[in-house]
Amino acid sequence: MTENMPGKVYLNGEYLPLSEAKISVLDRGFLFGDGVYEVIPSYSGQLFRLHDHLKRLKESLGRIRLNLTYDSEKWLEILTPLLDNNKDQYIYLQITRGVAPKRDHAFPKDPKPTVFSMCSDLQPFAGVETGVKALTMEDSRWELCNVKATTLLANILLRQAAIEQGAAEAILHKNGYITEGAASNLFAVINDVLVTPKNTSEILPGITRKVILELAEKSNIQTQEETISIQALKTASEIWITSSTREIVPVIRLDSEAVGDGKPGIVWHKMNHLFQQYKRA
Length: 281
Ligand SMILES: Cc1ncc(COP(=O)(O)O)c(C=O)c1O
Description:
By secondary structure, the chain is α+β, with helices and mostly antiparallel strands. The chain has helices spanning about 30, 50-65, 70-80, 125-130, 155-165, 205-220, 230-235, 265-280, and strands spanning about 10, 15, 35-45, 45, 90-95, 115-120, 130-140, 170-175, 175-180, 185-190, 195, 225, 240-245, 245-255, 255-260.
């Protein structure tokens, strides 16, 4: 059994107090945002859907052509000492293309990736029970939104714009169709069907999204992975935004209109209950 290490972070093979974890200013993560990351919830010390998160991490690494061949056992060995069995937490895990001798867009020869991980307490998101307001905005991101890249400027600006207008999330659209939230996937109940945009390179393949689709199938909730136009979203009786840290958040106002009757809907109540049961199991 590895001992828990509260307050410690992992950096390139070492466990250190946060204040002692340092990287070079020539790290390509710092200079270019040349890296990928994962956020993995841990409930009472058990990493939630670790296999799915590591699969997505491997895909992200592959798409940015960064070679790091750690297997699940190696990741478990790295992450376990950061966890506290008595808490709900989340792991933040980041891998960059490492330090290069000089700032140059082209990849360095034989890059040595920087591997960093830390663990934080998971606080229930305040808007889950009451529902939140969201605003639709043009998706200004790049074409590889299926990569969980640390380069998040567009997402940050969109989320910030939403917050400054009193909303919790920006719901993004491209060419008239909904993609996802600035840091979440989107579900909508339209004509009694639970619909979510298809997994394409325009969205991040969310693990919470995947779990919801599985739970819906087991519980005979009809689902569809389909394009959702902005107009169709405006007719939805329920809208949810989903992510590992906020879980399933009902949207009760979209732009200036109430969604459904302006309260978290019946399908959300059912799915949230199923999700809470599932994560504790
Ligand atoms: C852009 C984006 N889409 C979707 C998600 C949801 O992914 P997950 O459910 O794996 O947390 C996130 C999570 O942060 C995100 O940043």
